[in-house]
Amino acid sequence: MSTILPSPTTAPGRFGPYGGRYVPETLMVPLFELERAYEAAKGDASFQAQFQNLLKNFAGRPTPLQFASRLTERLGGPRIYLKREDLLHTGAHKINNAIGQGLLAVKIGKPRIIAETGAGQHGVATATVAAHLGLECVVYMGTEDMARQALNVARMRMLGSQVVAVDSGSRTLKDAINEAMRDWVTNVRTTHYLLGSVLGAHPYPTMVRDFHSVIGREAREQILAAEKRLPTHLFACVGGGSNSIGLFHQFLCDPDVKLIGIEAGGRGGQLGEHAARLAAHQGFTGARPGVLQGTYTYVLQNEDGQIATTHSISAGLDYPAIGPEHAWLADQHRAEYSAVSDQAALDAARLLSRTEGIIPALESAHAIAGLVERLPKMTKSDLVILNLSGRGDKDMDTYSRLL
Amino acid sequence: MRALGTIDGPKLRENFHTELILETRIHERFKTLRNVGELGLVAYITAGDPSLDATLQFVLSLAEAGADVIELGVPFSDPLADGPTIQRASERALKSGTTLARVLDLVRRIRKSSQVPLVLFSYYNPILQMGLEKFASTAEAAGADGVLATDLTPEESEDYRRILGAHHLDTIFLGAPTSTDERLAKIAACSSGFLYLISRTGVTGAKDSLPDDLPALVRRARAVTQLPLAVGFGISLPVHVSVLGGLADAAVAGSALVSEIEKATKAGVSRSAIDAAVLALTEKVQVLKHAARHGLSRREVAP
Question: Is A116 considered catalytic here?
């Protein structure tokens, strides 16, 4: 069987035609500096030791790979394992990358950190790491997201971070990134932009993936120990795509492992009603390759190249572009992407809560819904790892209103 | 070099291979300014704010009042390099139905009555979605002279430069205070028409003073290129323009003009509101142009 290696085929920072660096000139030299610092850190034993130490003793790695026996029984299909990133400190996988980039900020001498956040999980992780490392921290968040993820706003403030309300555009993640970029371009000499997903200009998509690849490395070892074989399917939700790429990356060269990313289908296929960039096959319209916020990738947009508004019940998936490596994996048919509706995600959240005693984040609930919808195509001999990227505390308002 | 073209339009000159190539209006205007030792004034406004018909009037008035080059901002949904003033203008322009195709049509309409040098100032995505070839040929046919894409740097611009160059459009790139000398040289090598220097790290928007390290940036750029240097971001007052007279070849005023339009049309987009905006823009440009003519001139300062 032939293996397609989804490695960059053109310039560094490119995944096939996707990726690159599309930023105002002011940010170019800082991006080169960041790339050099990151490359140096990869081979720097003391940096890696610090990173591993914080992952273990501060964040709580390794996370368990739990056999979901009652969910498996209920669904009556493949054996299902959950990668429990929800058990990490701060409640989601986001802390992996926040620790890595936080240490990098210290290394390159930037005393101030900024971040964007959608669901608030990346903001909380960044605020946490900033407090732990003694860095000043400012988090940009859309006002719509601040309302639906109020608990996380309170947590960031408790941790000493400033949360800046962004009231422009759709008042969600995209607009928070615009505002963070404006801060960065202004304060770039003292400030590191701790971007929270595999988005933005090179080196972010690669660097953020690498910091999260610990998810897949652990999961691979754990499943081999438990089942003596590789999984047949990996499931993960995809907003920008950080938790999914973190899980997928260690399995890219195993062609028998199907990689399945689940996007937010929102209320329907019409542009503006969803955040599905790679699910045109299901009738989700409006995605074409384009440039948004530093990278060339699939972007939801109108015919004139204006970026579309998106809708998802999940703040963390409510974004018009997808990480450039996912765009490439989709083009190569190495990973499959599909979308599930708001309602399917809500139903899946209830299902997991009542079968396994785990209340998932709305984002992770999309992955569960994706698995449920794929069941007819699967058999009992299949073996699934599903990345449970975050816990649902932050979504209790939504759940108690709608369930 | 001998000019072979018409009196008002772009001129033809011979290049090394004795082909006839088109001089853009931008090149001609900077040559004239250099000859008389005068600082140029580049005026930015967002096209379609509050309507494309209004923009047509604004451009003609700006040119009449003494603006040497007009930058027409193409509104974008996510203007991440812009401050609040131009963000709001972009929102108003999008709300009035402005698209890149309509801005190109506006260029065509401007050309019916003015030969003022015109630069399209856009984010990259709208250009990319139109398609580089279609964009460049339409822009050329409409009578545009140059293009500046805010979020496009030399590294990602090979096709863009080749295609725009083939359609005789100047490609203008930005130099920033964070750009190293080596990068400034590279940016200049990819630029034609003029080099646009960003005065400060930051987004667009009027400021009270110019940054202390601006002269150093201009000197660094001067050392690596013969291109005219235009300085923008934060230029709003006559005193800024006066100071630049001793340093640069042109000053760019943007947010300061856009906020005049905003003020005049705040209560509504009536005929009289547009007239008031025309008056305010004319006065602003006259004041700035006066400072450009009577501040320190490059000829007086240059060795």
Answer: yes
Distance (Å, rounded) from C-alpha B183 to C-alpha B189?
A: 10
Q: What's the predicted TM-score (pTM) here?
A: 0.94
Which chain B positions have a beta carbon within 8 Å of A304's beta carbon?
Answer: 99-101, 126, 129-130
Closest alpha carbon within chain B to A297: B125
Nearest to B179 by CA among B158, B200, B194, B164: B200
Q: Tell me whether residue A17 is in a domain.
A: no
Q: Is the dihedral of CA A296, A302, A305, A308 positive or negative?
A: negative
Quick check: is A393 in a domain? yes
- A87 shares a domain with A39: no
Note whether A176 contacts B: Cβ–Cβ < 8 A. no
* Region B37-296: CATH code: 3.20.20.70
Judgement on whether residues A168 and A240 belong to the same structural domain of the protein: no
Which residues in chain A come in under a pLDDT of 50? Answer: 1-9
* The pLDDT value given to residue A5: 45
DSSP string, A318-364: --SB--HHHHHHHHTTSEEEEEEEHHHHHHHHHHHHHHHS--B-HHH
Q: Cβ B77–A24 below 8 Å, yes or no?
A: no
Q: Which of A304, A307, A309 is the best residue to mutate to test the B interface, defined by the most B CB atoms within 10 Å of its own CB?
A: A304
- Convert the pLDDT of each residue in B10-20 to its tens digit: 555 554 444 45
Is the CA virtual torsion B30, B32, B35, B39 positive or negative?
negative
Last residue of a domain, one of A208, A240, A270: A208
Percent of chain A with pLDDT over 70: 97
Does residue A167 lie in a domain region? yes
Q: For residues A96 and A212, give the distance between their C-alpha atoms in angstroms, rounded to a whole number.
A: 6
Q: Which of B74, B148, B151, B231 would you mutate first to test chain A, the one with the most A CBs within 10 A? A: B151
Please name which of A270, A378, A287 lies closest in space to residue A326, comparing C-alpha atoms: A287
How far, in Å, CA of A339 to CA of A200, rounded?
23
For the question of residue B82 being annotated catalytic, the response is yes
In this structure, chain B runs to a length of 303
B295, pLDDT greater than 80: no
User: Nearest Cβ partner of A291 from B151, B176, B179?
Assistant: B151
ipTM of this predicted structure? 0.94
Q: Considering its fold, how many domains does chain A have in total?
A: 2
Mean pLDDT, range B24-48, rounded to an integer: 96
Shortest CA gap A81–chain B (Å): 40
Looking at the complex, report in whole angstroms how far the Cα of residue A286 sits from the nearest Cα belonging to chain B: 12
Domain extent for A45: 22-57+94-208
CB contact under 8 A, A21 and B183: no
Q: How many residues does chain A have?
A: 403
Name chain B contacts of A182, Cβ cutoff 8 Å. 80-83, 203
